[in-house]
Amino acid sequence: MKKPLQQLKAWLSLKSPKGITALALFTVLYGSVFYHIVEGFSWVDSVYFAVITLTTVGYGDLAPQTNIGKLFTVYYVLNGLGIIYAYANSLYTRQANKRNAEKSNSESNQEKE
Asked: Any idea what the CATH number is for the domain that residue 51 is in?
């Protein structure tokens, strides 16, 4: 049986889909808190802006008005793009592995018949 600290470390590993999900959620969380405090956005607008910014959709309906907000957004986009890419890639890889396993099982079942 693994020790709790080892389990947590394995769960938060960036090789784990759970770890990447946790990191993506944390990134949205700290961006939301920043935009709420510094830019004065509502909580809903803060979460919305954090997600829209990280996914590079950028509708243009909200934008940081302060210099620190603009500089943070540059950092946030550069840092967040890699995290969001890794998150999307982990979802894709997980789905592809699942499909390959199902296909392999299906083929081995046909061979047995």
From this structure: 1.10.287.70
